[in-house]
Amino acid sequence: xxxxxxxxxxxxxxxxxxxxxxxxxxxxxxxxxxxxxxxxxxxxxxxxxxxxxxxxxxxxxxxxxxxxxxxxxxxxxxxxxxxxxxxxxxxxxxxxxxxxxxxxxxxxxxxxxxxxxxxxxxxxxxxxxxxxxxxxxxxxxxxxxxxxxxxxxxxxxxxxxxxxxxxxxxxxxxxxxxxxxxxxxxxxxxxxxxxxxxx
Length: 199
Prior knowledge:
Largest sheet: 6 strands, mixed
CATH superfamily: STAS domain
Number of domains: 1
Strand content: 15-25%
């Protein structure tokens, strides 16, 4: 019998639909649907591997954040349609496999939305992040897809993980450390591209 976690990718696609999908976006939608369908296989294989069971989730979520979906180890929320809050599960050891699933989720959403997004990543629940994960995130943070990345660090371990990421594998988009989501959101607003005015 399929678990709820195995059905997550299809639920993600349903959750994404109201955010801004238009009828003429059929090609983009098909591509993103393929990305999310791919998560089924990744989730099933990850659940079969030792040490890859779902972890306890503890970060609190304000009511105004709209649920976007989740991967096998991270929840996603939208405070606005072009800003994605990334909440890794408590105790996550972020490795290459984890990074590939999560960067695919983030870029998939941006492509579905049809414009660049920012991510606000709460690093406090991580226990580690390896060099492969850092390389994958840095390579995936492209200016054609994202306009900013904010890393929330409120404890010494999270600050160390964030500092390693910025120091060793700086991404190609503006990226900064913050001690609160509110401060990060205020900065992200200053980085948001101006609307394109059509004549």
